[in-house]
Amino acid sequence: MNLSGAILAGGAGRRMGGTPKAWLPVEGKPMIARIAEQMRSVCADAAAAG
User: Is the dihedral of CA 15, 21, 23, 25 positive or negative?
Assistant: First the structure.
């Protein structure tokens, strides 16, 4: 099966000091990068929109 994934990462991050939540670091890596890595393990490709 050939799956594609989409990461919806909208929001201005006003409650996070102006930084979009997707770009906040988790153990030294942006959260969106961690999510994309996990998606690539089960999807043929992954795209992010924000």
Answer: positive
Q: What's the pTM value of the predicted model, to 2 decimals?
A: 0.70
DSSP-H helix ranges across 1-50? 31-40
> What is the separation of C-alpha 26 from the centre of its chain, rounded to a whole number of angstroms?
12
Q: Which residues of 7-35 are buried (b: 16+ CB within 10 A; e: fewer)?
A: bebeeeeeeeeeebbbeeeeeeebbbeeb
> What does DSSP assign to residue 27?
T
pLDDT bin (cut points 50, 70, 90) of residue 29 is very high
The length of the chain is 50
